[in-house]
Amino acid sequence: MSNQNYIIEMLELKDNNIAFEENFYYKEKIKNVTHKVFEGYLSYQPLCCSKCGVVFDEKFEKHGFITSNIKIPDVAGFKSILRLHKQRYLCKHCNKAFTLKSNICDFGCFISNNTKWKIANDLRQKRSEKDIAIANNVSPNTVERIMDSYYNTVKIYKNYLPKVLSFDDFKSVKSADGAMSFHLCNSETGQTIDIVEDRL
Ligand SMILES: [Zn+2]
pLDDT, tens digit, for every residue of 122-180? Predict the structure, then answer.
């Protein structure tokens, strides 16, 4: 396996269009926190112009790079980023420039998909969103957005009550805060409104 492939495999970046040159790795302080920085170049021949849709031909010109810092999962306990220089092309059919896309993160997003998968996996554990946000170097809002996109969560509307409300306490799981948990449901539909860990 080439060094190039080792890096892609090690960082779980499933995009063979990213090239790592010599001195691709260094440490850098970002907001006073030491980060591991991996620097790569995204370049390939696009199939078509992403602005006007014309198929690639000789009227396409390379048009410099645009750089994004993409959060990737921690490496050996250090916050880590992929500093990706993405090739830009100028399409002379529509005279507009566009940036190549990579499948390691969504367009316009600076959090890698494997970071999102890790957060989605962390959300399966009994940990607060805030702790998961700190551990993954993202904001709690990001964690919430990932939870909404990966899991079908039941939204609790606390400013609304059904016409008939039923409630009961019950023994839930050992890890619950109280001895008994508290269940509220809509009597007419049987739908759970909320489960509170402690009946107090
Ligand atoms: Zn075009």
Answer: 999 988 999 999 999 899 999 999 998 888 766 677 777 889 999 999 887 777 777 88
118 and 48 belong to one structural domain: no
Q: How far is the CA of 48 from the centre of ligand 1 (A)?
A: 8
Task: Note the pTM of the prediction, 2 decimals.
Answer: 0.73
Say whether both 178 and 90 belong to one domain. no
| Contact by Cβ (8 Å): 41, 85 | yes
Biggest alpha carbon–alpha carbon distance for the chain = 72
* DSSP designation for 137: T
Q: For residue 87, how far is its CA from the centre of ligand 1 (angstroms)?
A: 15
Our count of domains for the chain comes to: 3
Paired residues of 196 in beta bridges: 182
Tell me, yes or no, whether 55 and 99 share the same domain.
yes
Q: Measure 199 CA to ligand 1 centroid, in angstroms.
A: 62
Å from CA of 98 to ligand 1 middle: 8
Distance 40 CA to ligand 1 centre (A): 26
